[in-house]
Write a structure and sequence with these properties.
The strands form two sheets. This protein has a four-stranded mixed sheet. With 487 residues, the chain is an alpha/beta fold. The protein has four domains: 64 residues, no CATH class; 138 residues, Potassium Channel Kv1.1, Chain A, CATH 3.30.710; 98 residues, Potassium Channel Kv1.1, Chain A; 79 residues, no CATH class. The radius of gyration is 30 Å and the shape is globular. Helix content is 53%, strand content 7%.
């Protein structure tokens, strides 16, 4: 979030020795001091692992940590410790917020804080986003609605290093490594800005406690942005009466600190390009491309903000899409889960597609025509929904075998195999046979590999449910024969 180049890596806040250590490494490389370069600091790595450091192999950072180890000893040490099996689903979201903090000039920042150092009177400038500061701090929310309502550059007489860490916390829920001499000053800023940060959190004394605090902070961050999104962006009337009172004096756009208006049907949503373009490649292309200006029109009652008319989506569905974009989570009602799935695919929101598919497949019966669901699953590549539809077909096999729509779907499935031979498998039929084998408790060792039917072994009779299973497979084969297909 730093615009000025005055704050270097060797500032007191970042530690005075970092730059020197880096220079020492460069000198060792130039001198060919291989032993010094390859040291790897084995004891330090061991200490960190024993103190609770995590190496998550399935993440980019974890893989880089493992494969980028400077020595075989360090690599073996990492492998000797159990990799955590947990997947941090919030990591992409936290990366997004971190990018907003680190690179505000690349993500539609709309305010600059100018701070003067008390030591040498140097000036530092920090770019930021009003919407995030409003969501995270009542102090900033009140200021931006009153004395700072139209301010683009705001001068604050505070320690620049401490203020930067406060900004980091507001964006990410984290505080960087700080020297003890700055702790009290940061705590004073926390009190002034109405932030709940304890001295224990700043000291980071216990790795385990720090991990617990980290989880709580990301939850709090999501809750703050969820409240902001629902009361200022979506403007759901079920939330907080105090915000409705404030709307009497300020416009919805001013309350939301919006830089863009999106109209969907009869609803107006004051939005933020920082969120839309960073979270969705669809909106990134829409609002930052060469033709972005041509898609906007202006309305005088919207304070000259650009207005975009969005089609192909209902206000109810778009509200959920915005909630996901701002918070990385949302609850999708089964009644609109199909529409959310299709819209999430259009707006390139893969995680929301997964959430919508879970809502669709947690039901016993489809909320939409089953054939429409299956084709959508295939078109959008939603394996969970495709498997659920196949399972439903298996449970209703006697009914669907008489349905021309099902037979048409089988033909489409056969045609999906490029250069299919006469006896090649058909994906849909294979899936149905799999679910039937589960339903009738048929094991692979009991069936004939060619026909797929249960065969009678010496001294054993075929059970009644196995006979029923064989009859169903025979009916499937007869249906395939009528279609002149073999699988």
């Amino acid at each position: 979030a730093l615009m000025s180049t005055n704050l270097q890596a060797n500032s007191p806040l970042d530690g005075r020795n970092k730059e020197q250590n880096f220079q020492n490494l460069l000198q060792a490389c130039r001198a060919g001091d291989l032993e010094r370069v390859e040291s790897g600091h084995y004891e330090v790595v061991k200490f960190l692992l024993e103190s609770g450091a995590r190496c998550e192999q399935d993440t980019f950072e974890g893989a880089r940590c493992l494969y980028g180890a400077l020595t075989e000893g360090i690599r073996e040490l990492l492998l000797s410790h159990e990799f955590t099996k947990a997947v941090d689903e919030t990591q992409p979201y936290r990366h997004f917020l971190g990018q907003l903090f680190e690179k505000p000039l690349d993500s539609f920042c709309d305010v600059v804080f100018k701070l003067v150092s008390n030591n040498n009177f140097e000036t530092f400038e920090f770019a930021a986003h009003r919407c995030i500061l409003c969501a995270r701090s009542k102090y900033f929310a009140k200021r931006f609605e009153t004395t700072w309502l139209t301010s683009k550059i705001i001068t604050i007489h505070r320690n620049p290093l401490c203020f930067r860490e406060i900004l980091r916390y507001l964006y990410t829920g984290e505080i960087g490594e700080i020297q003890e001499e700055y702790i009290m000053e940061i705590l004073e800023l926390c009190y002034e800005f109405d932030l709940d940060i304890s001295e224990e959190y700043l000291n980071k004394s216990s790795p385990k406690r720090a991990q617990e605090r980290e989880k709580l902070e990301i939850q709090r961050l999501q809750q703050d942005l969820e409240h902001f999104c629902k009361t200022r962006v979506i403007r759901d009337k079920r939330y907080s009466s105090e915000d409705q009172v404030a709307e009497n004096s300020l416009s919805a756009q001013e309350l939301a600190q919006a830089d863009l208006i999106i109209n969907v049907g009869n609803r107006t949503f004051p939005c933020h390009r920082a969120f839309l373009t960073r979270r969705s490649d669809y909106f990134k292309a829409m609002f930052t491309g060469s033709f972005s200006e041509s898609i906007f029109h202006h309305q005088q009652d919207n304070k000259n903000l650009p207005v975009f008319q969005l089609s192909g989506c209902t206000p109810e569905v778009f509200s959920l899409i915005l909630e996901f974009i701002y918070t990385d989570k949302c609850e999708v009602p089964p009644s609109i889960s199909y529409d959310v799935l299709v819209s999430a695919d259009m707006y390139l929101l893969d995680k929301l597609k997964s959430i919508a598919s879970i809502a669709l497949t947690n039901l016993k019966e489809p909320t939409k025509d089953i054939y429409t669901l299956m084709r959508t699953a295939l078109d959008l590549g939603v394996e969970r929904l495709e498997s659920w539809c196949s399972h439903w077909f298996a449970d209703h096999i006697n009914e669907v075998l008489e349905d021309p729509q099902f037979l048409e779907l089988v033909e489409e499935s056969a045609a999906s195999i490029k250069q299919r031979q006469e006896t090649d498998t058909i994906p849909l039929i294979d899936e149905i046979r799999y679910w039937l084998s589960k339903k009738y408790c048929v094991f692979e060792e009991d069936v004939d590999k060619k026909s797929g039917r249960v065969v009678e072994h010496e001294g054993e009779e075929i059970l009644s449910w196995e006979e029923e299973y064989n009859k169903i497979l025979e009916r499937i084969d007869q249906a395939l024969e009528k279609l002149k297909l073999d699988a």
